[in-house]
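step 4 of 6: structure.
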Amino acid sequence: MMRGMVRLALSPRIRRSPFYDATIAAGASDFTVYNKMLMPMSFGDLRGEYDALTQRVAMWDVAAERQVQISGPDAHACAQYLSSRDLTTMVEGQGKYVAMCDHDGVLLNDPVLLKLSGDRYWFSIADADMLLWCRAISAEQGFDVEVSEPDVSPLAVQGPLAEDLVAGLIGEEVRSLKYFWFLETTLEGIPLVVCRSGWSKQGGFELFLQDGTRGTELWDLVAAAGASYGIAPGSPNHVERVESGLLSFGGDTTQGSNPYEAGMASFVQPNIDQDFIGKAALQQVLADGPTRLLVGLEVGADIGDEWLLPVRTPVLLGETQVGTASAIVWSPRLERTIGIAQVDRSVVEAGESVMVSGQRGMHTASITSLPFT
Amino acid sequence: MMRGMVRLALSPRIRRSPFYDATIAAGASDFTVYNKMLMPMSFGDLRGEYDALTQRVAMWDVAAERQVQISGPDAHACAQYLSSRDLTTMVEGQGKYVAMCDHDGVLLNDPVLLKLSGDRYWFSIADADMLLWCRAISAEQGFDVEVSEPDVSPLAVQGPLAEDLVAGLIGEEVRSLKYFWFLETTLEGIPLVVCRSGWSKQGGFELFLQDGTRGTELWDLVAAAGASYGIAPGSPNHVERVESGLLSFGGDTTQGSNPYEAGMASFVQPNIDQDFIGKAALQQVLADGPTRLLVGLEVGADIGDEWLLPVRTPVLLGETQVGTASAIVWSPRLERTIGIAQVDRSVVEAGESVMVSGQRGMHTASITSLPFT
């Protein structure tokens, strides 16, 4: 399953996570670079990592999911201007999945936004230098805020047994957290934000470590508490996220994608009263409909575990490219081959079958909605 | 020399260069991720790559040095607002090394800026999403420009024989190009910008490929023309750049570094009439002097080829951290161990000796100016 690997030359330019030493000790074998930080992508047994995630509980170093902190008197106004969603009713302890767009309505990032207090927010970002974007906007708009990257590093605990584990470790109060809501606490003196979130549909939490010197300590506490639940180290799981239809920003999106083309329609509110970046452009997309859609592919080929696409591949109708596939996997849960692609809306609406090119040639695929069921 | 390597999990989120296939065919073994693109860092023989660069000629896939194009009626005004240097006298065909700063004077990037025409500029950028920064600024300022990433991928040809090679391949007119000046041309129909530039002090050019479908073709033409000069594939060379004191943005710089703390004092002009981002903050730094300086280290240890620091390491005076070292190498040219660090100005001015921590313990180092001589 380890095809398409090359060696990574380390560099002071590429940061190590506070959990790096712990993940190496736990057998991390393959990494990606995400927000200029090393992030483990495998511990050498992708199927075993999938099974732990979907049947028991998994722990992931997702410190590379960096926070952009907006703090100061204008924090709310600034966060609202940066987000294409109504934040009026947000309260302390609540998170929301938001689209950040440019002035043309192009999707720049799909963070979870956490409201720490009335004057402090975190955008928990996907792979892009949103710190630059937020600094430019806040300075040019004259918002009275500080935009910074705080010492915050998430550790994800995901899977059907995650809640029992985290409740035992942190306290029963985590059970009452709604999705994307969080609480601040300490564990053995380690300052944490505990949020019901994570990049899977298996349930679980992200423990936002607020002291980068204590990564190994937190990792070891979670591993020890998880032993009786069969916890295993893993990483954001490519197969599970395709099954669950979770967006990989920068992977599934292509240049110029707007949120409607990235499956984020239900998280975008262009007709609210508040002003935000890209509002007029998104109103136009809403009126016209997007030109492309993020869809599932049912691929007519039993490819086994071999096709974990490391590159994008064209989606064809006859000889015309009508889209781009960004993932094709064999699903253990569905016992068939599925994928994710961005495809022209006209082709999707006509219910056309398409072709995708793979390592062994062309395969027929039918289009379906996400998530897979 | 390949210590500190891990495997890189490939992903659609991480782009391949137009030269990727050619570099794999030529034996590229180790990559970094730079501007979300794979960039070769070794072909398996770092000393041989150094010798080719310093004695003959080397070719590097530096497509990851992406361009941010500013085009339209306000292109000049926008480029000036983004650059802390007087661009008034720049003419078509000229490039300049510029600092891009934020509103607090913090260095965000150290690109070469190319003026293609009165209404079209390229920032040829180091590793950061400057496209986001430039889009935010231009939209908020209301500049009548388009900010885009064009289909442009540099291939560097560097070394003492580079000029003869490129003159033979492209034409004798390249010999009269001044540093950072360029011309537009074609080679076998391949559209190119040929610039006297590159991240070494060995002389040479960067061939900016303007058609991403023709990467292998250009690579093969350069390799064939270079055969009689003893050309070898390589990459931005860590040892040579330390010897030459070239800045690695994001590696040598730390959070909050201003251009004066990054060795860019001679490229920053805070007292010009033009308005640009960070002007007042940089005037203040110029008046007060920077608090840190980028310096060379003469390390009192014969470490051989073993110490190609993959992480930053503290610089100590007694038990106090007074700086951060980002590179320690053994220099074949100088036949001694040298490094690059950012150190508190007071320590530099007092002429203090410092200590740097390495894999085998602590080493004494004296501080010197850059470049090494």
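step 5 of 6: annotate
 - The longest strand of chain B covers residues 320-331.
 - The mean pLDDT of chain B is 94.
step 6 of 6: archive
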